[in-house]
Amino acid sequence: MRKPRPNWWKLRRHLDVRRRFRRLYGESPGQLLLLLASFALCGYAGIRLLGGDWPLILLWFVGAAVLHDLVLVPLYTLGDRAVRAAVGRRRRPVPRVGVNYVRVPAFLSLLLLLVYWPLVLRTPEPYEPATRLDIDVFLGRWLLITAVLFALSAGWLLVRTWPDLWSRRPNLPWRRPRTGRLSDP
């Protein structure tokens, strides 16, 4: 009598550690390692940072979290709703992902403003000697960077929607190509 052959596919699937790990954890092992490394780096930075004047740093972190949650998140939401309302009123609406073409440059521009706001708003005292630049150049450069970010985003949106702009029938997911049946006109 002949021995039954083992099913190698089932055996490999049963022994595949990565697949079992993904099923248990939800992501790949590389993502877990990256997350643990980022926690270790943040812990090291926190220990180094809190070695000095830790009450002021702790106050700054709490203040930044409260400012973000109570002031900036409602502003983000209002801005996002305004963009959605402005984009949704057109005859040919931009897809929902089209809002991201406004979100990303606005976020990057506001992040640059947040980092360089004393220089952009022309507060020269402690910053001008450190930068060795005239204080009047920062507002123009920030505006130029903002304009370039929005222009790049608009260009990318145009490239992504180019085929849909010139086609008579938009490529809609519920519209399937017809098959050649005799009853079709």
Structural write-up:
The chain has about 180 residues and is mainly alpha-helical. It has 7 helices and no strands. The radius of gyration is 27 Å and the shape is extended. The longest helix is centred in the middle third of the chain and has 35 residues. About 5% of the residues are buried. The protein starts with 7 loop residues before the first helix and ends in a 19-residue tail after the last helix.
Short key terms for the protein model shown above:
single chain; extended
Task: Briefly characterize the structure.
With 185 residues, the chain is mainly α.
Order of helices and strands: HHHHHHH
Helix content: 55-70%
Distance N to C terminus: 64 Å
Largest sheet: none
Using the alpha-carbon principal axes, give the shape. extended
What's the rounded overall pLDDT mean? 76
Could you tell me the radius of gyration in angstroms? 27 Å
The strand count comes to 0
* Uncertain spans: none
Structural class: mainly alpha
What quaternary form is this? Answer: single chain
Set out the fold topology.
Layout: H1 8-15, H2 17-25, H3 29-49, H4 54-88, H5 100-120, H6 128-131, H7 137-166
Helix pairs in contact: 5-7
